[in-house]
């Protein structure tokens, strides 16, 4: 993916909302860059249209069209939110975008009345493991040699309690923390 160059007047506005069709090719590129090519264009199209998926995008508005800087997706399976991917463009990592994506996925899981969230993560992916732990995910198991490319194990992480009456308060506290962090970095955050 080419280096992202932003015009100064729009550089600090961020939008988070369901991925729109115009950004599907950019999602494939971002996936290739951050996740080694997990899904093809067909895969993203399928998620985009599936009523059981929430496919979210963080983008930066720009005169030539929005720049996609982050993607996150969940599958709703019975009472479970299966988080299938989260990725932030390397130029934008470390500023709170990953947290913002995870927050919005869990918020949507709550709106869907799901009860828990789960995901797999490489045992060596410390940035992602730390991110999930911040949101209360706990290790509940391991899938041996889950990743075909390296033969690495996957940790199975689990976050329960999404349907509990106190969870909206937790969500509100996370939202406050994430907005403050983004604002401190000069980002104006718009969500839908
Ligand atoms: C994992 C990923 C999405 C995090 O995105 P990000 O925007 O950099 O994350 P944030 O800035 O929101 O950081 C949130 C938390 O994640 C953890 N984290 C992020 N980067 C980290 C790093 N380099 N080392 C350790 N922890 C890190 C920290 O807990 C951090 O909270 P803190 O800043 O208060 O310490 C990003 O690194 C990424 O896209 N990686 C490649 C794709 C990937 O591995 N996805 C996960 C697949 S399961």
Automatic annotation (TrEMBL):
Gene3D superfamilies (UniProt xref): 3.40.630.30
CDD domains associated with the record: NAT_SF
Example GO molecular function: N-acetyltransferase activity
Domain N-acetyltransferase intervals: 14-162
Keywords carried by this UniProt record: Acyltransferase, Cytoplasm, Transferase
UniProt similarity note: Belongs to the acetyltransferase family. RimI subfamily.
Protein name: Ribosomal-protein-alanine N-acetyltransferase
Naturally occurring in which organism (per UniProt): Planktothricoides sp. SpSt-374
């Amino acid at each position: 993916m080419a280096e992202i160059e932003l015009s100064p007047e729009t550089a600090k506005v961020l939008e988070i909302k369901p991925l729109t069709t115009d950004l599907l090719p950019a999602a494939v590129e971002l996936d290739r860059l951050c996740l080694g090519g997990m899904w093809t264009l067909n895969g993203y199209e399928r998620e985009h249209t599936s009523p059981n998926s929430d496919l979210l995008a963080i983008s930066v508005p720009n005169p030539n069209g929005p720049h996609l800087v982050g993607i996150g997706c969940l599958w709703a399976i019975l009472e479970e939110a299966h988080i299938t991917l989260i990725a932030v463009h390397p130029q934008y990592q470390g500023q709170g975008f990953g947290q913002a994506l995870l927050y919005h996925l869990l918020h949507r899981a709550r709106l869907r009345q799901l009860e828990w969230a789960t995901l797999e993560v490489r045992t060596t992916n410390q940035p992602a493991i730390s991110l999930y732990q911040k949101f209360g995910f706990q290790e509940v198991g391991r899938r041996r040699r889950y990743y075909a490319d390296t033969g690495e194990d996957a940790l199975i992480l689990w976050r329960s309690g999404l349907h509990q009456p106190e969870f909206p308060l937790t969500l509100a506290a996370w939202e406050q923390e994430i907005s403050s962090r983004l604002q401190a970095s000069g980002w104006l955050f718009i969500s839908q």
